[in-house]
Amino acid sequence: xxxxxxxxxxxxxxxxxxxxxxxxGNPAAIINIPAFxxxxxxxxGTAFISFPLSRIIGLAxxxxxxxxxxxxxxxxxxxxxxSMAEQSRREGLLSLExxxxxxxxxxxxxxxxxxxxGTDPERLRSIMEIxxxxxxxxxxxxIAVLEAMGGxxxxxxxxxxxxGLINVLSNLSDTSTLGHKIAGAFIAxxxxxxxxxxxxxxxxxxxxxxxxxxAHIGEMSLEGILSxxxxxxxxxxxxxxxxxLSPKLRTGSEAGGGKSAERQAA
Length: 266
What we know:
The protein is built from twelve helices and no strands. By secondary structure, the chain is mostly helical. Helix 5 (74-91) runs parallel beside helix 10 and helix 5 (74-91) packs antiparallel against helix 11. The two termini are 24 Å apart.
């Protein structure tokens, strides 16, 4: 579970509704079923119009990446590939099969198995780059849906408010409830802006960051696998992979060395 996403949602909801209470308002006042139907129903409707059905159906699976962190640890991946390079130099590529089968990341596992099966390096690179591009395309599809919904929701909120005001102004016989009805009409605008800026757009940004991080680790893993296949010295493999890491995670840094020592001790 990604704590940052949960904390962000809690702070977003808590600060807005908490501030409303501090100003003397009642959060229950925004419970307006017609407004929710107009804004959220209309937003999802425009998403269905804009994107293929398969992409909308797949949105739920894409959203899981925002709430559940798969733990793509770049340093751990680099250490794993370097240890495989050392084993390969001692015992040969075929000795890596058992360790490759236990790798949890399907992308890395696929690359290692292709390497062990003796796939030509250029063909291996081509296959894995296609895999990277396909994964990125899937993620970008879900992100595009969320970004589009973040753009549609405020507009649908304004439309809901306009419809509410039309209804109010068409029936001015009871002026005692006029203020309450006008306030209710603006709930749709609030729902549209709130859903866009607390849910749809932030989740899209989170997924975009996850996608870039996964792509970065995928590129690093591919370089490591090709280096192992080429029989590079483990020190050379380490230097290559360290180039993908931030300075504090590299082997030569104090932070990186400390983490490496902790792993070896464990």
